[in-house]
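All the exercises in this workshop are built on plain-text protein records. A record pairs a protein's sequence with a compact description of its fold. The structure tokens are whole numbers drawn from a learned vocabulary of backbone shapes. Once this layout is familiar, the rest of the handout is easier to follow. An example says more than a description, so a record of this kind follows.
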Amino acid sequence: MQPAQEQSPHHVYPDHWEADVVLRDGGTARIRPITADDAERLVSFYEQVSDESKYYRFFAPYPRLSDRDVHRFTHHDYVDRVGLAVTVGGEFIATVRYDRIDERGRPASAPADEAEVAFLVQDAHQGRGVASALLEHIAAVARERGIRRFAAEVLPANTKMIKVFRDAGYTQQRSFEDGSVHLTLDLEPTAESLAVQRGREQRAEARSVQRLLAPGSVAVIGAGRTPGGVGRTVLRNLLGAGFTGRTYAVNRAFAADLATVDGVPAHRSIGEIGEPVDLAVVAVPADRVPEAVEDCGEHGVQGLVVLSAGYAEWGAEGRDRQRELVRQARSYGMRIIGPNAFGLINNAETVRLNASLAPEPPAPGRIGLFTQSGAIGIALLSGLYRRGAGLSTFISAGNRADISGNDFLQYWYEDPDTDVALLYLESLGNPRKFTRLARRTAAVKPVVVVKGARHSGSTPPGHAVPISRIPDATVSALMRQAGVIRVDTVTEMVDAGLLLADQPLPAGPRVAILGNSESLGLLTYDACLAEGLRPRPPLDLTTAATPQDFRNALAEALADDGCDSVIVTAIPWVGEDGEAEAGDGEVLADALHTAAAAGPAKPVAVVHVEIGGLAEALAAATSTVAQPRPAAPSAPEARTGAITPEARTGATTPPDPGPGPAAPLTGAPGTRAGRIPAYPAAERAVRALAEAVRYAQWRRQAAAPGKVPEFLDDTIDETGAAELIDTLLGPDPDPRGRPLAHEEARELLGRYGITVRPTLPAPDPDSAVAAAALLGYPVALKTTAPHLRHRADLGGVRLDLSNEAALRRAYGELTDLLGKPAELRPVVQAMAPRGVDTVVRATIDPAAGAVLSFGLAGAPSELLGDTAHRLVPATDRDAAELIRSIRAAPVLFGWRGAAPVDTAALEELLLRVSRLVDDHPEVVSIALEPVVVAPQGLTVLGASVRLSPPPPRTDLGPRRLPNY
């Protein structure tokens, strides 16, 4: 909304303050600045506020607003006086206002940095977390305008408002003066305020997903009058799944006297139903969707599943239509799955919802599945169904214009019915948030991801999201850092998901292999070695082995303390007549189940070749039905089943303290006697097991996270670096940023204890000799021209020049071979101790954030891509893993008899670079190349730094839904 003409012309309307937010009960609302056009809305809002709430706001009876009040509360300069409103359906439900004041409490302008703040929330919307969300946003606005503290006067009886301030997590002071509570809040974000904000975000977004997954009633808009069509198919699937709530068929073309369709009530609109509808499945042409959304919004529908196509996947016009769809739905407080969605499934016994186009949903189970592609969703459902796997929930989000994988990670984190989260993603709308949520979820349950569209360089049609510039290999490394199991194909995702859902995590990489085929055992052994596991020599039971022999061998392997997991290989038995006997699969499955149930909790997988009935028998186990499992930390309102009374009244839970310790790695009760995953190829079983081994190792490490060593604080001048950066950028910095000169970069890095060996220009031989005399022999002569930089293979570097004659000779050879000095830009640098050349980089990606990278200099990193990555800020563990995770890492640790280099010094350098980038977001790139790491110490020979005005940090700002 734009301001009226009489609005102050000195400050334009700050449209970047507008935001959609999810409230505590899962509904949405819009926060925006109040303008002069809002006078009627303000008066209407105030008339619906109770006398008690008015008294709490004004400390006296205040039945109505005067014209002067209305003018004051709707006219702001957006600097010293700011008002924000929360709207639903275009009408105000809450307001907040701040006025800048001086030390005596009188109206003031900058540089005064304190403001008085006051809230008013409509009684019908109290308890939904409206004031908490408003406080986050008005605090961010105040910080932007140079205000550092809020002052508030609250009546002691206004306990709800006092609690809002108290629970915000800001540093605050309270006193009792003249019959009121005086509160002062320091608006600088703290670890506690950030934890409170993210805890509220998690509960609200999880709740918004739960409202979609566990509705009390569903209306299918667009259900046809005759069988067939999308709407009628969804209606049939709802009824076929045995949905426990009420179901309605809606179509404006229904005859007035039509009472039922497929046995459910038929209506021409949502308004005709006359009862609350929680979820609407929209299956009408795109041009009729706005009418359906309006009908839903006006009659209190809580969420939409939009199956209709014709949106962003159709180009620019469709993208505009999609944005309008999201805007319209959110204006009514509704969230959307879709458009162009395949639907959603919730197998909870209390719900039994199949609001999708899938005719054969998998049985109830422990796996949650999210996909952005309907076609992939169909394939995954079919594959899971064939392999007897069970699902807790399934969502195919289509263009995912609103609800995304991040929302479902928030939900699955505390869902007691989901033990494994599988996600097929084609785009990441908010990679920084995804990695944060994935890390927290992975600390309590596995998260397996397939990333489609990895190499296209663009997002798929329909996915209007920011494009990240970081390579796919970097995305993969960052996912691994967050504990995500990244696989390449949907087949691998299902393979890993089956093992993780029904088997305990392995305690280590030691694998026992047993079976009745020596050849298949050797293939499994080789596959284990290729995946970095430690297999024991295969135990060949011979082709004469009986199911009892398998049972005894498996029981013995599980009881052996020297193995952490077991892979059973099996081929058909060959009878006396020479024909394969493939009909004993059920007998073998029973033997394996018996041994696994009686033995210690270790993962078991089966590799089989054409044994009839084996895979089915192994999958036909009680674990496909939801069983009691150890639950992640949960809020009482986040339940898979029906909405609880606490959730309806908006009951709250304490702020989320963060991921906390990792959950135990042992198997859950009942899973040992449950299904055993079977695979048709050794490589597939071993790859799934290897992913489980790596994930289990990450879980153990996540239980005791790394830290940034305190010794860094004594050698870092953060304030001095900030002042230097301000000076280098200047009062009016170029938005494109600027590279630092060599000496500027050396000075900035020096403030963080990073010493760069000096270089001196050598525009002619005499200057080179003078530089060498100053630096001391031996020296290096090298070019700095961009096309020759770091290219020793082109002859642009001469090393170990021990005297003047050698230096002059090298200078002549260099210029004769490569060109004139003005083109080569030669420099002289003192020689560093011999060691391994490495490269350290840090870059800022606008979507993923700051990324720290390490590799060996030259061909290993540039040609082979052997580079490791971690998100900033990096801990001591991250730094240690960074240098050990590249394939060429043995070179640093004494490969082929060489002396090991000083990896401790290298880890410290990585931590210093991470700290610099994390402390100063203006530092958008750093490249230290080469960094020569010797047996004792290291030397940074080259450095380049780029500064730029800091990009916005959306992950640190107030909660808001994305707008794509």
In short: The two ends are 18 Å apart (CA to CA). Confidence is low (pLDDT under 50) at residues 1-10, 622-673. Residues 191-213 form the longest helix (23 residues). The first strand starts at residue 19 and ends at 22.
